[in-house]
Amino acid sequence: MAVQGAALIVAAALTLIGLLGFIPGATANVGELAWAGQHSGATLFGVFVVSVLVNAFHLVLGGLGFAMARSYSGARAYLLLGGVLYLGLWLYGLLVERGSDAHVVPLNGADNWLHLGIGAMMLLLAVTLGGQRDPTKRRIRRRPHLGAAA
Fold this sequence. Notes:
The protein is mostly helical and 150 residues long.
């Protein structure tokens, strides 16, 4: 099913992003990679601020996607859940004041735009591809009753 394929592609991309966040070259200043908090000096591709927490989030969400993509309903739920989580992370980045103790995830403007894009894309995939009929649930067609023969 298309929704399962989309979930696998998203899971692979998120897993790759999580792994690249630990690799020198893909991540600039990897020596400044913080566990959490807003003071991580590491940036993925020199643009997106990353921390161990952010990388772990991507790896866990990617792994969850591989597991849930095994079924139609699981893949759709993964895309919906992931979309909501990323949109929540986008809102967190917009609403939580930088410098406050509540700002435990290192985010910058590029991260916020990326989270908005990922969240919207996952929800769009869940709604458009998930709108197809679930092939595991067959519809039983009943023949019209012909009545008694004359």
